[in-house]
Amino acid sequence: MSTVSSLLLPSHLPFHKYQGLGNDFILVDSRQQLQPCLTPEQVIALCDRRFGVGADGVIFLLPGQAGADFSMRLFNSDGSEAQMCGNGIRCLARFLHHLGIPSREDGYYIHTLAGLIVPQVQANDLVKVDMGIPRLLAEQIPTTLVAPGQKVIQKTLTAAGRDWTVTAVSMGNPHCVTFLGDHESLQALDLPVVGPQFEHHPAFPERTNTEFVQVLDPTHLQMRVWERGAGATLACGTGACAALVAAVLEGRAEPEARVELPGGSLEILWDPDTQHVFMTGPAVHVFSGTVAG
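^ thats the sequence. predicted structure below, dont judge the formating
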C-alpha cells in the first residue's frame, strides 16, 4: 500500500475489535503506560475502512486514576478526542471481562474525561452502565443558545435552511436533541447534509452530537444520530441517554423507554430518585489481531 493512510499505520500493534449495536471500536491495551500509544494521525489511519482496520474510534485501556480501577481514552475516527461514549464504555467493559479481569460487586470503576463511569457486565453480551446525572445547564453542555445558568429546553436553532426546536443535554459530552413531527420521516432525513450543520453550529463552541428522534409511544423512541467527530453511526449510547432525558423534559416519554437506533435498541432509565441515567445494551467481541509492520 502506498496511501498516506497506510504509511501512518502503527506496526506490530495488538488490537481487539468490538461493536455495540454496530458502533465499532478498536480497543488497545495500554495499561503499561500512562498515555495512549498512538497519535491522532495513527488513529485516523487505523480507523480507515479501506486501508486500515476500520472503526468509528479507538479506545485505549489505561491505568486507573482518582480511585478508579482503569481509565478510558477514546479518539474518534477523525482523530479528535471524545469525553465519553456509551457504546464504547460497554465495549471496554466486555474487553475487561474478556481479559479475565474481575470487577467490583457493582461493576468496573472507569475514569473518563467525563468523570467516573461504572459499567456492569451481565449475561448474553449485555452491559448495564450507570451513566451518572445528566447536565442540563447551558454552561455545562456547552452552548450559547441561552444564558449560561439556564436549561436549553425547546429552544429554536436555525440550521440547514429551517428552524428546529431543540433540547440540549450533556452526558459528559454535548448533545442537541430534536424531535421530528408526526408527518416527518426519520428515514428520509438527509443526515450527511443536516448533521454537519448541527455539529459545527456556532451555538456549540465544542461542536455537538445531534439526535433526530421520533416518539412512537411514551416507552418507545426511534433515533438517528450524527456524532461529533465520527459522522453518521449506527448507534450512540450517550445520544440514546440524551434523547430519553430530552423526551422526559419535553413531556414526551416516560423515565424508562426503549430507544431504537439503526444498529439495534438500548434500554434507558432516568431514575427519578437518584437522577442517574442507566443504559443497558449489547457489546460484542468481533475479532482480535495485530497490525502488520
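The CA atoms of residues 135 and 170 lie 5 Å apart.
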